Write a sequence for this structure.
């Protein structure tokens, strides 16, 4: 067994602060309950706001101190989302309750995680490498953490409470535990006072005392805790189970109106999402960030919906798509909270590493490009052409938006689904044309005039070939009865022009340019 | 003497062949005159013409046919008109490997060009730039972004652009000529100045009949593939029904 104890010693502060990039959110901040300051950040502490002082006293010391009320439910929810995130490193994650504010407040609430990582060490390259990844990940999420590592859960937790980075293996465990201050074991004011009264400064001092007497004075719980830390008692734990849905909210410390600042906060959420997805071996096809505006403005949330070409859980990629989406979105009002919801979660098989980069890489790059273009230009702006078996020129093709590949796997994401247009080009599917077709088709035929019995567009046109009679469309509303010619103007550019036959009214009679030979 | 020079240096009278990766244009007359014997990869190629519809796309048809057959994607960025699918197909271009990106807004268009260049995932990029919004610094950025590209990059520009300075290493001026020919004048290349334009025959779809000769050129020989239909039409050319 090898346990990591993760103690989030500034959890409430981090929850309040993590949506704002550090230089902007540097104002002194403190967490308080009704009366007292529970925790204060470095700037506030430097100004004399110590945990434990009265709320009014703190405000007198630092008038522009930002106060946030302690919210136990939010803290619990955040810790659960952190546990869900940590599931990517090991399936054995457990919430640990303790005193988050030390001696100031004696309510025991969850404020840390315990991870049993023995079975994950090989996969992540050892204890130190895994710890490095954990710290890096938590830093990206915006949480400060103190980590302890030990063969038992209770010891790992005590180490984390005492000092960051403390760890001890089987042989050094007892010695390391003996060196800890005895106060770490106390869970209440009464216990603390008893320990003080019997002059037990270190855990070592407790070992010297008779067990029965100690149990009578301090309660069995304290001794049990010590026994569990030493591995003399079993320690059953409840494992955390990840929620089936991902929805998370991040309240911003200030009103944000810049896209960059929003992106900073969104990146925190996306990192969290990535961890949750990794733990479930899943990926997203689509996600939506709701930007909540201040209630006073009475505005509906701004919705930033992003679709991916193929499922992914790479936070960088999700973030870059969101950035493009943000770049073209106008925020009607400042934003005070972000909510991330993901709709399409799919199982993502792990990609096997390739010895040589193959064609799959280029295909994947292309899918990335398409989704980036779609994120900014709009999903209909990336198009694909296909043939339709019809004689009418304007009905002989179809323009489809490139779908971000429904149901296709990663490798062939941008591949089209239609088998029809896959036939070799000169094959039977292409209508045999008498005259060559122009490479450019005008979106609307342009009516042109006639001079000296010759069609005229900027200059006199000379007919080089034709007519090719095209009739069709009696079966739907768009009846076409035309004679097509290829014409050349005086600069030798070629046009595809037609004359309407049997036109129903004057407006449609005469010559039209329909294409250009690009 | 020439062997002493480093590979990236060439004499004014020679073509710079050094390390220019290129794809054949399909026209031997053009390949001979281009450094690397084809359309350069990872560089901008400017195609300057009066307007779209003078054969500028048919000039690239052999390349597009080759690329799409190799299952490499060709991106058409902000084409001025609709690329006509049946015509592309009749030229042998596989439509499955053609992507069209519409970007009506000039700023979006420049952004899309740069994004596409950065992705390096395309077989060829054909981009139509907004004439009045494209400044030399945009082109310099594009040229820098094009370096790692795996395919040739064509920028279609209007006639006025031929007098502007441009960082594109290859610039061609296209003019239509009678009988479906195209005059290609090399305005800039890594090599000696070329005064005379190259005249090429534009490719025709296999299934199509030949056109009549243009009227001013009286001596042109009739095409060998001329069909009865065409002759029939020719006889009526003067009256125009």
């Amino acid at each position: 067994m090898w346990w990591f104890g993760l103690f989030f010693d500034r959890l409430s502060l981090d929850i309040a602060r993590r949506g704002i990039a550090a230089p902007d959110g540097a104002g002194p901040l403190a967490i308080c309950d009704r009366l007292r300051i529970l925790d204060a950040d470095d700037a506030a502490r430097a100004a004399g706001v110590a945990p434990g002082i009265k709320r009014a006293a703190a405000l007198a010391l630092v008038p522009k101190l930002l106060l946030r009320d302690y919210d136990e439910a939010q803290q619990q929810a955040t810790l659960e989302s952190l546990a869900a995130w940590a599931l990517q490193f090991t399936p054995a994650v457990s919430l640990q309750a303790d005193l988050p504010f030390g001696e100031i407040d004696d309510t025991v609430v969850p404020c840390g995680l315990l991870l049993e990582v023995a079975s994950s060490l090989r996969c992540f390259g050892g204890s130190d490498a895994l710890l490095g990844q954990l710290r890096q990940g938590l830093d990206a999420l915006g949480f400060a953490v103190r980590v302890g590592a030990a063969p038992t859960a209770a010891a790992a937790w005590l180490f984390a409470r005492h000092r960051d980075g403390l760890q001890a293996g089987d042989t050094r465990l007892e010695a390391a535990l003996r060196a800890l201050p005895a106060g770490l074991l106390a869970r209440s004011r009464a216990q603390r006072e008893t320990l003080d009264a019997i002059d037990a400064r270190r855990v070592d001092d407790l070992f010297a005392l008779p067990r029965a007497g100690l149990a009578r004075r301090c309660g069995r719980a304290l001794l049990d805790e010590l026994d569990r830390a030493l591995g003399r008692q079993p320690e059953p734990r409840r494992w955390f189970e990840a929620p089936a849905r991902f929805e998370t909210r991040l309240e911003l410390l200030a009103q944000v109106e810049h896209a960059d600042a929003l992106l900073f906060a969104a990146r925190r959420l996306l990192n969290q999402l990535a961890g949750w997805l990794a733990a479930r071996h899943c990926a997203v096809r689509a996600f939506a960030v709701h930007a909540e505006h201040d209630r006073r403005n009475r505005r509906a949330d701004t919705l930033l919906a992003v679709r991916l070409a193929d499922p992914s859980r790479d936070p960088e990629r999700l973030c870059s798509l969101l950035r493009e989406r943000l770049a073209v979105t106008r925020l009607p009002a400042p934003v005070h909270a972000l909510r991330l919801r993901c709709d399409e979660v799919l199982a993502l098989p792990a990609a096997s590493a390739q010895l040589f980069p193959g064609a799959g890489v280029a295909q994947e790059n292309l899918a990335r490009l398409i989704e980036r273009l779609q994120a900014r230009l709009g999903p209909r702006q990336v198009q694909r052409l296909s043939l339709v078996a019809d004689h009418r020129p304007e009905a002989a093709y179809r323009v489809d938006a490139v779908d971000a590949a429904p149901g296709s796997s990663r490798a062939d994401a941008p591949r089209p689904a239609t088998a029809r247009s896959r036939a070799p080009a000169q094959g039977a599917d292409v209508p045999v044309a008498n005259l060559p077709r122009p490479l450019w088709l005008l979106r609307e035929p342009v009516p042109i005039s006639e001079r000296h019995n010759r069609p005229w567009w900027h200059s006199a046109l000379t007919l080089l070939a034709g007519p090719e009679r095209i009739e069709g469309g009696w079966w739907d509303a768009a009846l076409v009865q035309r004679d097509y010619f290829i014409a050349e103007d005086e600069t030798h550019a070629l046009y595809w022009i037609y004359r309407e036959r049997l036109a129903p009214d004057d407006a449609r009679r005469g010559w039209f340019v329909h294409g250009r030979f690009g | 003497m020439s062997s002493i020079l480093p590979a990236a240096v060439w004499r004014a009278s020679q073509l710079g062949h050094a390390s220019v990766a290129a794809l054949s244009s399909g026209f031997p007359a053009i390949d001979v005159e281009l450094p690397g014997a084809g359309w350069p990869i990872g560089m901008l190629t400017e195609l300057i013409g009066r307007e779209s519809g003078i054969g500028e796309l048919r000039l690239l048809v052999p390349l597009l046919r080759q690329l799409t057959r190799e299952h490499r994607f060709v991106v058409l960025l902000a084409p001025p008109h609709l690329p006509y699918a049946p015509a592309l197909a009749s030229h042998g271009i596989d439509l499955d490997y053609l992507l069209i990106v519409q970007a009506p807004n000039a700023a979006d268009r420049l952004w899309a060009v740069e994004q596409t260049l950065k992705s390096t995932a395309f077989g060829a990029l054909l981009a139509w730039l907004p004439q009045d919004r494209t400044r030399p610094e945009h082109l310099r950025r594009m040229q820098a972004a094009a370096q790692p590209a795996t395919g040739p990059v064509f920028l279609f520009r209007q006639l006025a652009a031929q007098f502007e300075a441009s960082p594109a290493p290859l610039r061609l001026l296209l003019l239509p000529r009678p009988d479906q020919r195209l005059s290609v004048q090399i305005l800039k290349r890594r090599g000696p100045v070329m005064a005379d334009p190259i005249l090429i025959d534009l490719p025709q779809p296999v299934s199509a009949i030949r056109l009549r000769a243009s009227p001013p050129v009286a001596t042109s020989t009739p095409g060998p593939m001329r069909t009865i239909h065409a002759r029939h039409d020719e006889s009526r050319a003067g009256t125009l029904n």
Notes: Residues 44 and 168 of chain B are 5 Å apart (CA to CA). The radius of gyration of chain B is 19 Å. The longest strand of chain B covers residues 170-177.
